[in-house]
Hints:
Layout: H1 2-7, H2 18-25, H3 27-48, H4 51-74, H5 81-85, E1 91-96, H6 106-116, E2 120-123, H7 128-134, H8 136-141, E3 144-147, E4 155-159, E5 165-168, E6 177-182, E7 189-194, H9 204-216, E8 221-226, H10 231-234, E9 239-240, E10 243-245, H11 246-249, E11 264-267, E12 273-278
Helix pairs in contact: 3-4
Amino acid sequence: MLLIVAMLLPPPGDGNLPLLSLLVAFHAMFLVVVACVAFVTALVAIVLRWRWAMIIAAVVILAVSVAVAVPAVVRSPGGDPARVAASGKGTLRVLEWNTAQQDVDVTTIQTLITQTDPNVVVLPEYSTQIAKTSLATIAKQRDMQILGWNSSSATLLVSRSLGEYRVDHTDTPPWAGFVAVPSDAEAPWLVITHLQRPSISSATLWREHLEWAASRCRGNAVAIGDFNATADEISPSRTLGECADCATRLGQDPPGDLAGGAPRLVGCDDRPCVRGGPAGDRPRSPS
């Protein structure tokens, strides 16, 4: 019962409680197991006429139902494409979506790019080699570079209106992501992430990837991708290195808009996220 209640509470920060973090990460599997056990318990209690056992089983099933229903009701829709597309000059527009490789039809991705008119598109789990073929037409139409590297599953499309970008994967752990470095000193550095989720036995690899992302998130940087964590799990203060969670800065639920005047953090896990916000003053570039 306490574990089910924990599912409804804010998750722990910085991965110091890996078991509870894993319950959050694998909540669907956990809830299915709890529901099955509660159902079997209820059947046994009915047969043996164990009144208190029936009551406890009923409460557990109710708690599981709430744990499933609440996130579904309050989950952020990820933004309105029309509003983002109309955000105008002085705005950095970002589209991020973990499509689970090619589980999403390329036409859907192209349509969303057209609707939102982003400067930056991040696909944390979409092979760059595939993207250079399947998204070549939309990239050419919108004058965007397609970037990535062999030891990352992430792909970046970035508008040439921000200048030319190159990939930097110096000291990057395999499959953590990469940094897109601009040729224009005024353009933001883009920290592209797809952090490996914690395993059942350990969160060590996830923390290693998180530390890498935090070390790159400084100066005029924007961290974008799938962090396999909520903002609270990344840090109780909802920061990553010098990056602050955009939604928190704007008083919104994550994922959120891009706030100006500081490094920014955008993450949307496994659903489309489209956000736009004022570019604001540009701090120094990382060195």
